[in-house]
Amino acid sequence: MHHASEDERFMRQALALAVKGPAVDPNPRVGAVVVADGVVVGTGWHAGAGTPHAEVVALREAADAARGATIHITLEPCNHTGRTGPCAEAIIEAGIRRVVFASADPGVTSGGGAETLRAAGVEVVGGVLAEDADLLNPDWAFSLRHGRPRVTWKYAATLDGRVAAADGTSQWITGPQARADVGRERARHGAVLVGTGTVLADDPHLTARDADGTLLDRQPLRVVMGLRETAPEARVFDDAAETISLRTRDAREALSTLQERGIRSVWLEGGPTLAAAFWRADCIDDVIAWLGPKLLGDGLVAVTDLGVGTIVDAIDLRTMDVRTMGPDVRWHLRVHRPGEEA
Hints:
The protein is α/β, with parallel strands linked by helices and 342 residues long. The chain has 2 domains: 6-142, 3-Layer(aba) Sandwich (Cytidine Deaminase, domain 2), CATH 3.40.140.10; 148-335, Dihydrofolate Reductase, subunit A (3-Layer(aba) Sandwich), CATH 3.40.430. The chain is 27% helix and 25% strand. It has 10 helices and 15 strands. The strands form 3 sheets. Strands 10-9-8-11-6-12-15-14 form an 8-stranded mixed β-sheet. β4, α4 and β5 form a beta-alpha-beta unit. In the C-terminal section; belongs to the HTP reductase family. In the N-terminal section; belongs to the cytidine and deoxycytidylate deaminase family. Its EC number is 3.5.4.26, 1.1.1.193.
């Protein structure tokens, strides 16, 4: 007789292992624990795309002890052959008698592992600590559901919503704390995206740095989209991180290209024109707005025409978090689409 509390105890171990995997990766973070007669005989986690899946690592460690054992996995085992074989098959071959998983796999190609296991006579229990497990891979799950990466639009503006003065100057609307936060956020996303206009106007570097300007270990893919010619000597094309150019003004086209490259989250740092293109395509999910305590009165607004003519057509956002950092206010908002969880 298996007690739910025991399943949860070993699932917590699997969750703790999953966190060892890379937070930003084409693949989800997954942990696995093989238990025979109440004793852990194998553990594993997924170390990123191209490496063995968590279950396979744990089964290898367990070896013969896997026969008749239970495996606890933070995600439903995959059912398809990608770079690695399907984990459902590996579990059956190892002689595992019982599978306990947390999150169901939302992937059309990879999902359905539980059915394969049940058909082979393996006992399957799903949904154990699923809410905890879902928090491991929100961007990955989002991109599978929507067929595109999750997009966060970031901008820095004065109190009156200007992102640059009338003469085009914009440094510095916000203080050093805000800039350090942006560096950390870049590192937390798969790609940083700007338009050719921003490259021409500001020559940004788009690297992830800490407060004292040191490059962080993980750099996002730098993406420049648009049809205007940019200079090859622009800072964004240096060797501090990988950069790609997308010759398009179409937000959805750009995102589908990034989705194919395994990018699950995009930090949109472009100017008002690019932001408007993404809003009009309904491709923005979160907003991080930095407001500096300054007034410009005239100058460049944060976003250009959105096709909103009257107040009832305004785009409504939900405030998730507001905090002060140094002299500035950091405002995190989320786009709410009908039928979606908050």
